[in-house]
Write a structure and sequence with these properties.
The complex is a heterodimer of chains A (about 400) and B (about 600).
Chain A lengths: L7 E6 L19 E2 L2 E2 H11 L4 E6 L3 H8 L8 E6 L6 H6 L8 E5 L2 E3 L1 H9 L3 E6 L9 E4 L2 E5 L10 E9 L2 H8 L10 H9 L5 E4 L3 E3 L5 H10 L5 E2 L2 E2 L4 E3 L2 E3 L4 E2 L4 E3 L2 E3 L4 E2 L3 E3 L3 E3 L4 E4 L1 E4 L2 E2 L4 E4 L2 E3 L2 E2 L10 E2 L10 E4 L2 E4 L7 E3 L4 E2 L4 E2 L3 E3 L4 E2 L4 E2 L2 E2 L4 E2 L1
Parallel strand pairs in A: 1-4, 1-6, 4-5, 8-12, 14-17, 15-18, 16-19, 17-20, 18-21, 19-22, 20-23, 21-24, 22-25, 23-26, 24-27, 25-28, 26-29, 29-33, 30-35, 33-36, 34-37, 35-38, 36-39, 37-40
Antiparallel strand pairs in A: 2-3, 6-11, 7-13, 8-11, 9-10, 31-32
Chain B lengths: L2 E6 L4 H11 L7 E8 L1 E8 L2 H7 L7 E7 L14 E2 L5 E9 L2 H10 L11 H9 L5 H10 L3 E9 L6 E6 L4 E4 L4 E4 L11 E4 L5 E4 L4 E4 L5 E2 L4 E2 L15 H7 L1 H9 L3 E2 L4 E2 L3 H8 L5 E5 L1 H18 L3 E5 L3 H4 L7 E5 L6 H12 L3 E6 L5 H5 L2 E4 L12 H20 L5 H23 L1 H11 L4 E6 L3 H16 L2 E6 L17 E5 L5 H12 L5 E6 L11 E5 L8 H18 L18
Parallel strand pairs in B: 18-19, 18-20, 20-21, 21-22, 23-24, 23-25, 25-26, 26-27
Antiparallel strand pairs in B: 1-4, 1-10, 2-3, 2-4, 5-6, 6-7, 7-8, 8-12, 9-10, 9-11, 11-15, 12-13, 13-14, 16-17
The chains are: A alpha/beta (about 400), B alpha/beta (about 600).
Chain lengths: ~400, ~600
């Protein structure tokens, strides 16, 4: 029999992540790949390194993708239990689902990447929550503290009085469920765990733990930052085949059966998955992740980009500062613009809202199953939904809805 | 139809059961109930909708339970008759969808053994029968009990003796298993639990399943364990009420195989070679009938016209069919025919007004309706339910075919009473009836071919539907379906009437849909198609699957599997419904809510 009091890690993985459209039309947010592993897997690996062996995943949106990837956790030598949230009704509702499965436990928001040491620190402090200082606290729930104790968590507010925010990692025991049951719907119609915690604070002390590593991803272009950060921490490993006259420098990981052909010039950090064909004569620049079964062909340049599995940039393509979904194919000469002439910040549109990405360089965000025709061009900050056809010679800008045909 | 559900897992069962029942509401909503197990069976049930049940529920402990939503077909809508039913000891709870044909005998046997009954339903006997066979193992008790039962069922059972188990079994009524994490489900239909899991296992006829919060086992009728792969459901729970279909209308078209089954079951006995209705109906029909008036509006009127054909052919009685809104203007009221009012909702005001008038003039009245307790069923001498379950799409589909089938059963019944057909002929008709659900499914399987032909219609401005004999009212209905949902001007004509006027409207751009069955009108229909072709329009023939001649005459042929002369109309109608549906869909029309139309018209 399993020990009842064993520490478990709940990972909230039910969300769709609407702000991650078009990438999340076809996958839950936690399955977005960073350095060729889903965000959720990085959290699982870090939590495992911090000593956790038992996980409870709260799943919902496209749950089968989470389940298919992680199964029962055997591959990682850990144990995963799944709880289906049903209708998404907020974080408190999600955590409330797990009552019957946990006693002493930590909770991670599955779409934020937490560091191993920070997770360890949280595990060691009963009734605690992670805090982090950020430059844009107005985007988050800020936290008022008194010494180490948490006084109150506030909802996202304009003009916040502190830069300390709620990082989305907690250590609780069964008591929290009493407060979750008392939690009422928030103005936005969800049951928020922060409301439960604010109630709990009145009766039980909760300690704040300052985090050292913390990377949250909200919008697609944040994946590029997270990708860069993780790639820089990895170590080289070459399982592929390398022809003569190739140049590989810096941290480079190459998967099984991947062939690096003559004339390929790769400057790390770069990770390339299994069964890829790279080259001949291509230039892959730093901070690029290429999934499994991809092809980067002749006269192609890829820079600071995530290309997901089964996608090809086969001939004369330039792809910079972009995210390319699965099963995409670039026509010959199809290229991406990633810098404005006036060098100003690049704006993009997500679900109809125009946003400043605060990036000077950003190419295209491309959903799954997109085909681009020869010599088609994608403007800076353009976004293309899944299953689109981009006709030959066309120029794409703004937000293209899924299933569209641009001709 | 009824909806049933079983749950075991970690959530509060009362909330899950209510939630699931709400998604089965399309299968019925005149009474509902649940039983949640926590040391004992906590049963809550009442008449009314599921929201009403939800309001009366206290906060229940327990994470295992069963539930039921009812669309009354046998026995009145009362709290007693609502499910779940408990066994005499109160330990076993049962929900049931279907009919137990030999329940009177089982009930008498059980009564003699000392079991006490709380309701008049056939379903309750199952609870006591399972208890009678209970010997420490619920699935064995269910399996042995069901061997004694004649009829159709999907049942879900729990027992306080084994508080971690839910047992389900099915024969001819639907039941699927939902595989969750630390929880599992049994339900009449997938949408019930789709919010919680999209992994399902389909149970086959005669199989039994035991679910616990940890796992699922399936047994075949020989008690051998069956291993079956789970299937992943791609559609979202938000589309669930339409079972993954883009429109209610398409879902309801696809429901028709089951709907046909629902009309026949319990009323047609192959062995006794007889048709049985409720006592009131039987009494009404037993007194000599000289003539019949059918009153109806819209699609029901066309069902009436098809019914006239069937009744006249089988019974030899004269039948007139009147529009509800015109009945009072035309019919002579000095004789007293049997008046049959056909109304899906039972609330159509034009039909109700005529019905009252018929009553006032001393006629006996019989109502064919889909809604028990509706005004029409209350003010008539007797009523027959089509048992199709709620129909949500405004364009009537499954209720139309069910109305025709009810009228057909009536025709058979009257012909037996009047001795106008022999026992062998009746038996033949019964066999053909039993074949129908399969034939409907065959048409549904060819939906993609029909979509191809719909491409030919999508840009047209007007279309003709032609047929002879029973296919004349069928062509009227085909035209009505097309016009009401696709907004294409469509008219149905008796094929022989074209030359008496409508030809003036026929141009090269008016497609003609011709219904051709291999009956006595076959040659004449081919001649009519020839007349049409001579004027240049496209001809789409709806023809029998082995008709090789027709290709020489028509531009396109849609094939259907024929039944008897009187029942071939059903697969033809399904074809026409799909044709109208696909055409409207290609034209991007609001199919479930066509402009200016409402589901039941309660104004004059």
């Amino acid at each position: 029999m399993e020990k009842k009091n064993r520490m478990k890690c709940i990972i909230l993985a039910a969300g769709e992540g609407k702000r991650m459209h078009p990438l999340t039309y076809t996958r839950p947010k936690v399955m977005l790949p960073i350095a060729n592993r889903p965000i959720l897997e990085w959290n699982l690996l870090n939590a495992k390194a911090a000593g956790i062996k038992n996980f409870v995943f709260v799943i919902g949106y496209k749950s089968e993708m989470v389940r298919n990837h992680f199964q029962n956790g055997k591959k990682w030598n850990i144990k995963i239990e799944y709880v289906n949230q049903g209708k998404a009704q907020g974080t408190a509702h999600a955590i409330g689902m797990t009552e019957k499965f946990v006693n002493d436990f930590i909770i991670l928001c599955g779409d934020t990447i937490f560091g191993k040491q920070d997770i360890k620190n949280i595990i060691q402090k009963k009734n605690s929550m992670g805090l982090v200082k950020v430059e844009n606290p107005e985007e988050y729930g800020i936290v008022e503290t008194q010494g180490k104790q948490i006084k109150k968590i506030y909802e996202k507010t304009p003009g916040p009085f502190t830069d300390v925010i709620n990082a989305g990692i907690y250590h609780f025991n069964k008591k929290i469920f009493d407060f979750i049951k008392k939690t009422k719907k928030s103005p936005r119609g969800e049951y928020e765990i922060t409301d439960s915690i604010n109630m709990m604070i009145k009766e039980h002390k909760i300690e704040g733990v300052q985090l050292k590593e913390w990377r949250d991803v909200i919008y697609p272009w944040h994946l590029l930052d997270a990708n860069e950060e993780i790639l820089k921490k990895l170590k080289s490993k070459n399982n592929g085949k390398q022809e003569k006259n190739t140049n590989l420098e810096g941290m480079i990981i190459i998967g099984k059966n991947t062939k690096i052909m003559s004339g390929s010039y790769i400057k790390g950090p770069v990770v390339i998955g299994d069964n890829c064909k790279i080259g001949p004569n291509c230039y892959i620049r730093s901070c690029t992740s290429i999934g499994d079964n991809c092809h980067v062909g002749n006269a192609c340049e890829i820079k600071n980009t995530i290309i997901m599995s089964n996608s090809n940039t086969p001939h004369q393509n330039y792809v910079g500062d972009s995210i390319i979904g699965e099963n995409c194919n670039f026509g010959a000469g199809s290229k991406v613009a990633n810098l404005r002439f006036d060098k100003k910040n690049i704006k993009t549109t997500v679900n109809g809202n125009k946003l400043d990405t605060k990036r000077r360089k950003l190419g295209v965000i491309m959903g799954d199953n997109v085909q681009t025709g020869i010599n088609s061009m994608m403007n800076t900050g353009s976004s293309i939904g899944n299953n689109c056809y981009i006709g030959l010679g066309t120029v794409v800008y703004g937000e293209v809805a899924p299933n569209a045909r641009i001709i | 139809m009824c909806g049933i559900i079983g749950y075991t897992g970690f959530r509060d069962a009362d909330k899950v059961l209510i939630d699931c029942l709400k998604r089965l509401e399309y299968r019925g909503y005149d009474s509902a109930g649940i039983s949640v197990m926590f040391k004992e069976q906590q049963v809550f049930k009442d008449i009314g909708q599921i929201q009403d049940l939800e309001r009366m529920l206290p906060d229940l402990d327990g994470t295992i339970g069963i539930g039921h939503t009812r669309w009354a077909t046998h026995g009145g809508v009362t709290q007693m008759n609502a499910h779940p039913h408990l066994s005499t000891s109160g330990k076993i709870a049962v929900v049931h969808n279907g009919i137990i044909e030999n329940y009177t005998k089982i009930r008498e046997d059980l009564k003699q053994k000392g079991y006490t009954f709380a309701s008049e339903t056939d379903s309750e006997v199952l609870a006591h029968l399972i208890e009678d066979h209970y010997n420490g193992n619920l699935e064995k008790a269910v399996s042995t009990a069901l061997k004694k039962v004649k009829g159709y069922y999907a049942i879900v059972v729990t027992s306080t003796e084994e508080p971690d188990k839910v047992v389900g079994a099915r024969k001819s009524s639907p039941l699927v298993i939902g595989i969750g994490d630390n929880e599992n489900f049994l339900a009449s239909d997938i949408p019930a639990f789709l919010k919680y899991t999209n992994r399902v296992i389909y149970l086959d006829d005669g199989e039994l399943s035991v679910i616990t919060d940890k796992g699922v086992q399936i047994f075949n009728d020989k008690n051998k364990i069956v291993n079956r792969q789970e299937n992943l459901i791609e559609w979202d729970y938000k589309d669930a009420e339409k079972s993954g279909f883009p429109h209610f209308m398409l879902k309801e078209i696809f429901d028709q195989a089951e709907a046909a089954h629902q009309v026949i079951r319990g009323r047609v006995s192959e062995i006794d070679r007889n048709i049985t209705f409720d006592e009131n109906v039987e009494n009404l029909l037993a007194n000599g009938i000289d003539s019949i008036n059918i009153i109806a509006c819209g699609t029901s009127y066309y069902a009436g016209l098809v019914g006239k054909h069937m009744i006249e052919k089988l019974t030899g009685l004269p039948v007139t069919v009147e529009l509800g809104s015109e009945y009072r203007n035309y019919t002579t009221k000095n004789n007293t025919p049997l008046v049959i009012a056909v109304t899906q909702s039972g609330e159509t005001l034009d039909t109700l007004t005529s019905l009252k008038e018929a009553k006032n003039s001393g006629s006996r009245t019989l109502v064919v309706s889909n809604v028990t307790g509706s005004t029409a069923t209350r003010i008539s001498d007797a009523f027959i339910l089509t048992q199709s379950g709620p129909e949500i799409g405004v364009a009537a589909t499954k209720t139309f075919t069910s109305q025709i089938l009810v009228l057909f059963l009536l025709a058979l019944k009257i012909s037996k009473i009047k001795n106008t057909i022999g026992s062998d002929e009746l038996y033949n008709h019964i066999l053909h009836l039993k074949e129908l659900p399969r034939k409907i499914r065959q048409v549904l399987d060819s939906s993609d071919n029909i979509l191809e032909i719909a491409q030919q219609l999508k840009n047209t401005e007007s279309a003709f539907f032609i047929g002879r004999g029973i296919n004349y009212p069928v062509s009227l209905e085909g035209a009505l379906k097309l016009k009401e949902i696709s907004y294409i001007h469509a008219e149905g004509f008796a094929a022989g009437e074209l030359k008496h006027g409508p030809f003036a409207l026929l141009t090269e751009t008016t497609p003609v849909i011709a219904i051709v069955t291999k009956d006595s009108n076959y040659e004449k229909m081919l001649a009519n198609i020839g007349e049409v072709k001579a004027r240049g329009p496209l001809v789409i023939a709806i023809a029998e699957e082995d008709d090789t001649e027709i290709e020489k005459h028509a531009d396109y042929v849609l094939r259907f599997p024929p039944n008897s002369d009187l029942l071939s109309c059903i697969p033809i109608i399904v074809t026409l419904q799909l044709l109208a549906y696909h055409t409207a869909d290609l034209r991007e029309c609001p199919i479930d809510k066509p402009r200016n139309l409402a589901k039941s018209v309660t104004v004059e």
